[in-house]
Predict the 3D structure of the following.
Amino acid sequence: MTRTSRSFRTASLAAVTALGLLATVTACGGGDSSGAASDGKPVTLTYWTWTLGAKSTVEAFNRTHKDIQVKFAEIPSGTEGYSKLANAVKAGNAPDVATIEYQMVPEFASQGNLIDLTEYAGETVKSKFPESVQSLVTFGGKTWTVPYDVAPQLYYYRTDLFKKYGIEVPKTWDEFKTAAEKVKKQDKNVRLASMPKSDPALLAALSWQAGGKWFATEGDAWKPGVNDAATKKVAAYWDGLVNDDLVQSYAGWSPEETKARTSGKTLSFLGASWSAGGMKTSMPDLAGKWAAAPMPNWGTAASGNYGGTSYGVLKGSDHAEAATEFITWLTTNKAGVEARLADLESPSSALPANPEMREVAAAKFDTAYLNGQDVYALASQQVDTIVPGWTWGPNQMDVYTAVQDTAAKSGFVAGVDAGQQKAESGIEDRGLKLAK
Amino acid sequence: MSTLTHDTTPTSQSDTGPRPAPAETRRRPAANLLLSKGIVNGILLVAAFYTLMPVSWLLFAATKNHRDLFATSGFSFGDFNLFANLERVLTFNDGIYLRWFGNSILYSVVGSAASTLLCVATGYAFDKYAFRGKEKLFGVVLGGVLVPTTVIQLPMYLLASKAGIVNTYWALLLPALVNPFGVYLARVFSEGYVPNEVLEAARVDGAGELRLFARISLPMLAPGFMTILLFSFTASWNNFFGALVMLNDDSLYPVNLGLFMWNSVTQQQPEYYSLVITGSLVAVVPLIVAFVCLQRFWRSGLTAGAVK
Amino acid sequence: MALPSAASPLRRSQRRTAALFIVPFFVLFAVVMVAPIGYALWMGLFQERSSGLGFGGAERVFSGLDNYTDALADDGFRSSFAHIALYCALYIPVMIGGSLALALLVDSALARAKRFFQLALFLPHAIPGLIASIIWIYLYTPGLSPVLDWIGAFGGTWDFYSNDHVLASMVNLCAWQWTGYNMVIFYAALQAVPREVIEAAVVDGAGALRTALRIKVPMIASAVVMTVLFTCVGAIQIFTEPKLLNQRGAPSIDTEWSPTLFIWKAGFVQHDYGLAAAASLLLAALGIALSYFVTRLGNRWKAATS
């Protein structure tokens, strides 16, 4: 009996130890809110992002700040990343700071995932950013996030191959179509561009450029227009190009999309100011062969915002003030902007929304890849052509997935119709007011 | 061990010794026989190629740097970067991969060991003891077998978030502990392996019930224990949906969720491809080794499941 | 089983031990399986409501069975079941047919190196589903994939993600993981076929193929049917494979392609917990019904054969 009970005791002891260990590990995994400034220790902020240049930015910040230290984690962009963020808020382990694209600000704010920053950053946003950008982060009279960049659309093309196929840089969408026909005629394996069906943000930007307004507010009611006339025109245009096989439609951000670009099977792409930063990494062998131009338009110079990021403080953070200090440094401090461009592997070419920072970034950005072209000057000019009055919706992610799911199967026109339907039903399902 | 294979795979003896050549072979002309033999083994070879190809590709891919990965063909070598890749995986982000690996072991090994012990104890008690409402309770267990775990994952999440254990180790460990099918198997095994006479004899000698279980029954149940353990080990090692739903903090991820996150990041940062590939290889190799070593338990477990 | 008389101390100690062994399991069972279902039933009765533009917070209101009717009326949820049915229609013949054929081949007297083949064919099952999906998706990716290089070497082209091919790509991905597993089950069942029966057939002059199809397959028919049904139970839970294919941009695998994807989206993209809970319970009911049917059938066969 003694032997038995001893081995039993050993076993149970081991079990208890294991459980205890578990508990301590769990406890350690749980809280980041320790290290308050009151005991003289620096505040530790957590920061989740997917933007380029984040690592060098955080390092620079930590070097120069004794009282605030930032820990950064890379998260996926798009739906995956936002649902991770929203879950983290629900689970109570959200980071203090995260990158929130403009398109997600209303949704995140109305879902209660963001801390109202009016008190900490309202002034900064009002005094340092153009009004067109302020309206993207201010809702219900409150400032929800601090803008970092504006993302006017830009058109990137292969200079060598445009010469080879004898095409001019298209200035309008009509010229774009003609050029696409010309390319296809010369080589059936090559296309002018690729229009991904899996990137509803690009479709939104193109609709924005054409004067579409996916959302608007009327008093205290939402008025979605995901399939308004301008958007329909854009959607039909691209359906036409895809159906006539004048453009490819690789999945956005996929290796085959990149491969088609590197192998010269796609001659140009529809990007934005920030696209230039990633090209160096994804197409290292093509340095000097790309150039940027204004996006083709519908007759008058115009641009949409394709992406564009801001920084928010997530619900549950105990350090809203310190977090705002970090955010302010990121968005309006020279050192912050420079650090972002200092990353050797993947510098950011985002165009700061704050005009003073634009010069800082332009001076720092290595233009060698684009053959010395001043992409910042070009992008800055495009900012002035961004069509005013665009608003993002309170269930933007859901609308995006509806557009994407349907567009993939039945084309862009069907996609925006599905998006409109989802916008309306989503607004009503949540009890929000829908303008009739 | 022989008792196990004997009981669960009724004819597994034939596995160990060649079966006498059936009469059919004798009547056929030799050439025809050779042809059939060639076809049968040829098809099997093709099938084996199909099952082994992806893993071997992984092995090749893990030796390449990012540029070679996309520039060289799948089954050729570029610059040999296996060790550089391994180093990058193991040290990336302060060694987060090792942490994931440790977490996986915690969830799978510790979780399934505890779960199996619980199953075996419960199944054994159902078999060997009489108590009121026994068959009704066992009916509840059988009811639990019917509930597919994936399907109640979201309800589990909702409750766990109410209880505040979302995003902790418990969020994955607690559900892994409950394995109704394991209890059912354990009862069957207990009926088969632990003769009541032995227990009676030990009781006459004055052994307590706990001692009986620990010193006599548990060793007899060892093969069944291994079988249930393997079942619940694979279940938790495969439990991607549960981890995706329950966990948010990188430092709690099991390997598969970590790889999923890295794989999602490849969209914005293509350099992550080699991390995902090498990370997958590191995760898969110990599984393959364990699987080859433990194959007899696999087979007996599967058959037990099939015959049930 | 002979039990000691009720009054004896031995009996009491046995009862205590039984309780000690059984109570922890049932406590956990209640916490992990019963309570979540109950809580989901409760959650399914409420919806979140905000007002105006929605920047003033939300409240939970009682909504009766609205979540259930919403789920049942949702095109996405309904078509997810159609997707699964279509998937099963392709997957089950391929996978079950494949494993049955392989089991018969390995079982045939002509096969060499049986142990090696069993191990090799079973090996994919050792690889977690997520990693298997990642590997195959890379093998579907132009630029990375040797498979596409081989196809290209013969002058062909193939797009694994196109609307016409993506279902086949998914079937391949799942068949790779499960064919060997089911092959082992069938092989074990074949081993249980009495040798006399087979030898009798051979003596009657039946060839190997005929013996396999006419004698062996009918003898293991119950194992085959059970496996088919288990595969169906598995299919309604499919998540990892469509999730990854969707993430990779396969156009026809949408964000609510399978019921579990729909639930995940409702819970984690739309944050509509009521809808997610209701859809989960509906799916659970289907899963339980299906499993119940399988078990019943299995028991009847067991009773019939023993």
